[in-house]
Amino acid sequence: MPARSRRSTVGVVDLARELGVSTATVSRALNGSPAVRPEVAERIRAHAESRGYVANRLARALSAHTSRAFVGFVIPYVDTPAYSAVAAECARLLSADGTQMILTITENDPERELRQLRELVASRIAGLVISPSTYALDETRRLLAELPVVELHRASGIEAPGVFSDDEQAMTESVLHLAALGHSRIAYLGTPEALSNGAVRLRGVRRGLELAGLDPAVPMRLVEPTRENGRDAAAELLAGDTTALLVGGGSLSVGAAAAARASGRRIPDELSLVVYGDPAWFALADPPLTTVQVEYAELARRAARLLLDSLDARHAGTPAPEPGPHLVTPRLRPAGSTGPPLHR
Amino acid sequence: MPARSRRSTVGVVDLARELGVSTATVSRALNGSPAVRPEVAERIRAHAESRGYVANRLARALSAHTSRAFVGFVIPYVDTPAYSAVAAECARLLSADGTQMILTITENDPERELRQLRELVASRIAGLVISPSTYALDETRRLLAELPVVELHRASGIEAPGVFSDDEQAMTESVLHLAALGHSRIAYLGTPEALSNGAVRLRGVRRGLELAGLDPAVPMRLVEPTRENGRDAAAELLAGDTTALLVGGGSLSVGAAAAARASGRRIPDELSLVVYGDPAWFALADPPLTTVQVEYAELARRAARLLLDSLDARHAGTPAPEPGPHLVTPRLRPAGSTGPPLHR
DNA sequence: CTGAAAGCGCTAACAC
DNA sequence: GTGTTAGCGCTTTCAG
User: Fold this and answer.
1) Which of A88, A344, B43, B276 could cross-link B79 (Cys pair, CB 3.0–4.6 Å)?
2) Do B201 and B258 have their domain in common?
3) Is the minimum CB–CB distance between B122 and chain A shorter than 8 Å?
4) What share of chain A is helix, strand, coil (3-state, %, to 5)?
5) With 50 as the cut, is the pLDDT of residue A299 above it?
6) Domain that holds residue A51
């Protein structure tokens, strides 16, 4: 047994020495460079494998100025299905590609976001997936412009591909669903217009009202997406004489459902309710809630793919994926919580 | 303007040159070494700040053999509250400490787990938080023994501190709650004993039955924690003549709640139901479900703290945190889904 | 096709 | 206290 430094991990120099080749050749073989004789390459790879060699990602990334050792995943929260489901799927797909995902929570605070972005850049991330905070800083945009970025859920107006739920259509459809049932006094609870998806959803609602020939001036509350806000704002809306409540936002929906229940109104007779998010949870309610269902896993798959494509493109010098929005269409799943209004 | 390489980021050599000191001094000042004159240190830090210097974490970690640039977070899933809530809080706390969290999903597959662990080690992580997969490999244990580890939710029998929900007590309490209401035909739906928390919960159930003076041979199904399994297994259990169903597991609870509803039994008159997880969701059900509530944020705080303490200890050479389990006590929140059995 | 050697940006001995 | 210098483990010109 050679006098290797004890218990230390095996590196390229070890492999090179043991095989009687240079570290350059080892490196090339391991990185699949075509500039090495196939048989040699194979021998090196086999040996590396048998020695349980695992490249030091730090050294690799530090040396090769371009490397996909790490990518960033920057989101405002992760303890909500809209984010956790996507984080899960992205982590899976990126890991399959051999890149590690650094998870970062901004709590929707632009300052934190910028700080974390800086730290990520300091970690030489190859690129990142981001749900920008509501008011992204200019400096943030500047940083984002310098590396492959895929936007998720929210857009910040930067030149980058993004993956979003096509909420406009879903919201329009939801309004039309309610209108078709005979509702004319519809209230809307959503997220602020400053949030790109808040704006999109609101647009969908307005369009739905227009298509249904209803008064566009419906009772409306736009609040930051938390359960508490959802509950409180829904309670206010329900104090009015609306016959239907449409909610655009997952956390808001949980709060709104609670408020609807607390209001004592019978559903759907005295109140029709359309919520947003994961139908499995809302199916627990009695009656089960009509839900706008978003395919988070599909969103994640597209985001991961786009990011990997961007990295490939940058590496190969080929054109990057088109920066346009990539939309995933949610589905309105009618359930027991929507029906004709009882009294008009 | 000096002929700096254009648009490149500023590094220690730049700072050193600009201040007329050596890179060593810069490094020392930036790392708060006491071996540098305070006024010089301050000047360096101020300059670094003004130049927007951010240290390259890769170089730092590669050079300093010990560094807390990265920590790993290795969990089987993240799209379930038990994991996403904890991931969120840990990411927050670790980020506040300046370390980045690499998120890794094992899908409860021991092979994947090992592969990912190897990759994490190759990234020179300072330590990690892990929820071991059901059957962790020996090689996995060996790797884990070499770095600061904090176990979460599940234990794998390694010598490391761990943070767990004290489910034994909660399950015992749940059984006693049901027994006190007059139930004697209680069924249990939980996770397999091979999972450490499955075993713990089952032990709690058995103890509860014993304390209540009930027959320990209750109808029981132990299945992998997914919603589908929960629904199917609950349906089977409900086909029997039990008057109460106790569920030990968050995803199982969602499925079980669905199955209970599908069974058509009136709750709580014809069936008392105790679920596990986030009360906010289960409050949507009608009646609201009696829930074993786990403080995930508290779990996360403890896990993060323990990990940081372990890192500090290793750095300072002081003793590591005691490897014993650190328990967070869940609360049984009685709600409308549990009541006296109607017919016996 | 392969090897020698020069870094990547930082920290840590070791001198002064 | 501070500077010089040698790496950390890998990739990558540049020669051959």
Assistant:
1) A88
2) yes
3) yes
4) 45, 15, 40
5) yes
6) 2-62
